[in-house]
Amino acid sequence: MTDLMAGTSEPTHRKPVSPRRNSVFTTVDLEQPGKQIGYFCVPQSPHDDAWGAVQVPLAVIKNGSGPTVLIEAGNHGDEYEGPLALGELLRDIEPSEVSGRIIAIPAINIRAVEAGTRTSPIDGLNFNRCFPGDFDGTLTRQIAAYVHDCLMPLADYFLDLHSGGSSLMILPSAIIEPSPTPEGHRLNIEATLAFGAPTVVMVDNLGETRTATAAANLQGLVVIGTEMAGGGLVSQDALAICRRGIRNVLKHAGVLKGPPELPQGANKRVLKVPGSRGYILADDDGVFEPIGQLGTIARKGALAGRIHFPRSPAREPVELRYAIDGVVFAKRQPGRVRPGNCCFVIADEYPEALALKGRADER
After folding, report:
1. What CA–CA distance (Å, rounded) separates 122 from 108?
2. Which segments carry the region annotation Disordered (predicted)?
3. CA distances from 187 to 128, 180, 356 (A)
4. N or C: which end of the chain has fewer CB within 10 A?
5. pLDDT tens, position by position, 7-43
């Protein structure tokens, strides 16, 4: 991408989105100054609640003029650092600190958050594979449609807070979402570096277009993602990175005053997952023994792990080997595996972003 540094510090293109017909309503006024914490409500009519609604927590903090930053957490219900850090921010921040607007959804996949599961127990869907959503679909698709049609068009920046969830341990990282335009890609990289995580990784989800970040990209927002540890746990180290990173993105956008506070070691590694070559998948049904550890160097052909077969003790374990050189970015958490389960994700160097980082450091 030769023109990575071309363009301005703000997006110059937006793709207009007209809200589709829907029955969602809110208990907050997104245009009203001050701090409001309430819900957007998605009417539902299950067996036990004929005229009820699912209440999704929604907050808005608005003061004066400035950009709008949309922040989402709880996209998967077993990823906890984002919801905790975002909840703290909403309790602590005062409207007088803000120039512009923060729209925050700290538990967007609310039924999954309540259940502590990756997918919604209502319809079994992965919220992050449901965009642009469908107001005539099941609950998860309706929530995605509201975010896509009614909240993203209001925003200039989109911060999507993830962790590894129950099935993966991941290096605490800020995630670059590749943009469809050179200017958008540059802006995404700059904003992601401003988050200040020790590791930055470009992940394109194998070209997946149904994610929240991909949808925000297509609307022309500046997009930042995260992966904060995982294993279905709360990491104190990752939580601290997330707390600081949220405020850093708000400072980078100009919604909070001052420059981002980048700790020593921020952006130390800038990597990318090189498509399907970066994934090591199980081909067998058995028990996974990881050899490679998070953050360690992976060498092509070296032993990454083994799959054992307790039911067939005479059978030798199957060896998993690295397909590329790189860094162990993620590894599977549960020992039990089936064919197709992701066991490791390997990331390698991302020179374009490193070049951008060097130029930014010189300014």
Report:
1. 14
2. 1-22
3. 22, 12, 10
4. C
5. 334 555 677 888 899 999 999 999 999 999 999 999 9
pLDDT of residue 2: 26
Per-residue pLDDT tens over the stretch 195-207: 999 999 999 888 8
| Cα distance between residue 268 and residue 21, in whole Å | 46
Contacts of 63 (CB under 8 A, 6+ apart): 33, 34, 95, 96, 97, 98, 99, 100, 101
Q: In the numeric block, which tokens belong to residue 233?
A: 């746990």
Distance CA 85, CA 160 (A): 12
Is residue 9 classed exposed, middle or buried when 0-12, 13-18 and 19+ CB atoms within 10 A define those classes?
Answer: exposed
Mean pLDDT of 248-258: 98
The per-residue DSSP string of 195-232 comes to H--SEEEE--GGG--SSHHHHHHHTT-EEEEEE---TT
**Nearest Cα to 162, choosing from 265, 245, 221, 263?**
245
Report which of 219, 223, 252, 235 is spatially closest to residue 160, judged by C-alpha positions.
223
Q: Tell me the C-alpha distance between 345 and 329, whole Å.
A: 6
- Residue 233: name the closest of 165, 290, 173, 161 by CA: 165
CA dihedral (203, 131, 30, 17) in degrees, to 10, reads: 100
User: 72-82 burial by CB neighbour count: b if 16+ within 10 A, else e?
Assistant: bbbbbbbbbbb
Q: For the beta carbon of residue 216, count every other beta carbon within 10 angstroms.
A: 29
Say which amino acid occupies 115: A
The widest CA-to-CA distance across the chain, in whole angstroms, is: 71
Helix axes 182-195, 351-362, angle to 10 degrees: 70
